[in-house]
Design brief:
By secondary structure, the protein is an alpha+beta fold. A hairpin with a 6-residue loop joins β1 and β2. α3 runs antiparallel to α8, α3 packs parallel to α9 and α8 runs antiparallel to α9. The protein has two domains: 99 residues, Phosphorylase Kinase, domain 1; 224 residues, Aminoglycoside phosphotransferase (APH), C-terminal lobe (Aminoglycoside 3'-phosphotransferase, Chain: A, domain 2), CATH 3.90.1200.10. The strands form three sheets. A five-stranded antiparallel β-sheet has the order 1-2-3-5-4, with no helix packed on it. A three-stranded antiparallel β-sheet has the order 6-8-9, covered by helices on one side. Helix content is 44%, strand content 12%. GO terms for molecular function: kinase activity. Pfam families: APH. This is Ser/Thr protein kinase RdoA involved in Cpx stress response, MazF antagonist.
């Protein structure tokens, strides 16, 4: 099924559109349709999101709640098809959905300023706050155990037993570093078991490029990429912001010495997050802010190393050992966050 055939399933009229691919993210295929009105057309990766109807159901439940309680808040839900469905399925079974394009907005791929860090963090926190009164039973996990550190360590252990001798030798130093942080798994287990964390609707993928900024003022406009909108804990969202905001370079960098923790960015994002969540989080939850960054950095290092040991079957790679370099870089950042740098 061609893009034009998919487009015709949505109520877009007969006007012509210029189609431009958007190369962002590892998971979905995204296109901008530019015409009299512009839109974002996206193919959801069914190999990652095994139950795409759950993704659509969660987003619709959140949209309905926000529309009822705060209709002025911009929540970017999908446009239904001409038959009233949330998505269109192509011949290969991949679901497609359509979103409005918000004019005069931009995304950024790297945090450059304290203002960006503050605004993005407050934007993600605001979404959680807006959904604070929603019925959690209306939401389901779109990826099971997505940020469950215990399970991710089990996957790492299993990959280690199956990996080829060559891959284990190449990754030996990174493997040892991963194993040295196993105490974070036990702390995570204790934190979850304690009941000190409240389950809330979280974004669960809080990279800076999942916020739309006003192109002129650079204020946050709305949160995007809601595929992982589901029940979770604040440590997932705040921790992922710490992981992805504080270093001036990301996990793709070849020179590990470029990885540093910018304390001013760290402080700004925490301040931004608490500007919305301070009255909602308990004191015990606030005491886990530092742990959140370490935990989420560790979980991504584990996932990237696991993929390398498994033969690079999950994350897209463009050169040999890319996942190993990604894992090494995440663990270097973890060293710095944990005070071991």
């Amino acid at each position: 099924m061609a893009l034009d055939d998919i487009r015709r399933k949505f109520p877009l009229g007969t006007g012509k559109f210029q189609v431009e691919p958007i190369h962002a993210g590892y998971i979905n295929q995204t296109y901008k349709l530019t015409g009299e009105n512009s839109y974002i057309l996206q193919r959801l990766n069914k190999n990652v999101f095994k139950h795409p109807e759950t993704v659509a159901k969660n987003i619709r439940a959140a949209a309905d709640y926000i529309y009822l309680h705060d209709p002025d808040y911009l929540f970017l839900s999908s446009i239904k098809t001409t038959s009233g469905d949330e998505m269109v399925y192509d011949d290969e079974g991949f679901p497609w959905r359509l979103f409005p394009y918000i004019a005069n907005t931009i995304t950024v791929n790297k945090v450059e300023t304290e203002e960006e860090a503050f605004n993005a963090a407050s934007g993600f926190a605001r979404l959680t706050k807006k959904l604070a009164g929603s019925d959690l039973t209306l939401f389901q996990a779109t990826i099971d155990r997505f940020h469950d550190l215990r399970w991710r360590y089990e996957q790492f252990d299993e990959a280690l037993t199956r990996a080829t001798p060559e891959r284990k030798e190449e990754a030996s130093n990174v493997i040892r570093t991963c194993q040295s942080y196993i105490y974070l798994v036990e702390k995570y287990r204790q934190v979850i078991a304690s009941g000190d964390l409240s389950l809330r609707i979280m974004h669960n993928d809080t990279k800076i490029n999942n916020i739309l900024f006003d192109a002129t003022t650079r204020k946050d406009i709305c949160v995007i990429d809601l595929d992982t909108l589901m029940p979770g804990y604040f440590i997932y969202d705040l921790g992922d912001m710490i992981r992805t905001f504080v270093s001036p370079v990301d996990e793709e960098v070849k020179d590990v010495s470029q990885i540093v923790v910018r304390k001013n960015i760290y402080d700004a994002l925490v301040k931004g997050y608490l500007s919305e969540m301070d009255s909602i989080l308990t004191e015990k939850e606030k005491g886990l802010i530092e742990f959140s960054g370490q935990m989420m950095t560790y979980i991504m290092g584990l996932r990237m190393l696991t993929d390398f040991l498994n033969g690079d079957i999950y994350y897209q790679t463009t050169y040999p050992k890319q996942n190993l370099i990604r894992a090494r870089n995440q663990l270097r950042l973890l060293d710095l966050l944990a005070g071991n740098g």
